[in-house]
Every structure is written in structure tokens, then in C-alpha cells.
Amino acid sequence: MMKTVLKTAAFFLCAAILAGVISLPMAETTYGGIYEKTVRLHVLANSDTEEDQRLKLLLRDELLSYLTPILQEASNKENAEKLIKDNLPEIEAFSRAFLESQHSDDMVSVVLGKEFYPTRTYENCSYPAGEYTSLRVFIGSGQGHNWWCVVYPPLCLAAADAGKELENSCYTADEKALLLQEEGGYKVRFALLDFAAKLKKLFG
Q: What pLDDT is attached to residue 185?
């Protein structure tokens, strides 16, 4: 009896691992256009204290106000990435000056590069897990709870404005359907992708 249970458990574990391994290569084919057209924003707090989390959210709001006019000039993702890259020193200086205005002596560092994100839902729009171009803002040690959003297309907005931006964005009709999960099967695919990502991190 015990052997049968163990064999069954081993079978399902192998099946799950196989599904995860298959999901990652498929993700590039299915969601590649989304990855290639998106720039994420990731703000990491110094710690999980109430004050550090408060500063994280305040800096988030200030950064969004600061980045909005810069990225309004972007006509595509590559252009948005270049605008951010060209302004990295200014973004860092702005962030540091804001924290100083809040009587914080935390250092700030900003990095633009590739980063893996889990599936994330913003209002009614879900972005699949995967590797995205990401502007990361580290406050102090960057060990606290963090905050994610999408700065290109500019979806870090009120729900109504974000919906309009998504509708008018560079995503294809199929990519918009994926983001809006207009078919229930997408939720299953996203769940498999998250599982595959965890396997990659565990064995990777």
C-alpha cells in the first residue's frame, strides 16, 4: 500500500516537473511580444518597518510623477528603455533628494536591466511571469517588501487611465487578450508558468 502511494506521488511530482520544464520554453513563444514591449518598475524598501514601508510608497508616488513626462516621449519600448538609461543618474539623484527631504539618510541605487517577475495583476490586467526589462530602485539595503508596476506602457495609473493606455498600447490584439485573460485557460497557463519559474529558481 505504502509503495503504491509513493509511486503515485512520484508520478505526479514528475508530471508536475515536466509540465514546468515545458512551460518555460513555451512562454517565450506565447508571451515573447509582451516581454519585449514592456518596462517594469520595482521599488524595494529598506526593511519592513512601518516607516520604511511608508517611505517606499512616498518615493513610488514621486518617481511616477517624475518618470511620466520623461516616458511620454517614448514611441516604443526600446525608446523608453533608452530614455530611462540616459536619465539613470538624475533618477537616482532625485530619489536621494526626496528621501533627504523626508529626513531619511538611506542611500538609493537604481539599476536598469533584466529581472524575473512572478505573475502580477494590476486591476483587471495580469502580466505573465517571466523576464522583463526592469528599473529597480533600492532604498537602503533593499530587504523590505517591494512594489511592482509597469511604466511602459504607462499602467501605473488610475484604473480608468490604465485601461485606456492598455487599449491604445503597442500590444497586439492577441497580447491584450492574454493580459486581460479573456479566456479562462490563460489562468491555468499563468499558474504553470509561475510553477516553472519556482522550479528554475530551485534547481537553477
A: 45
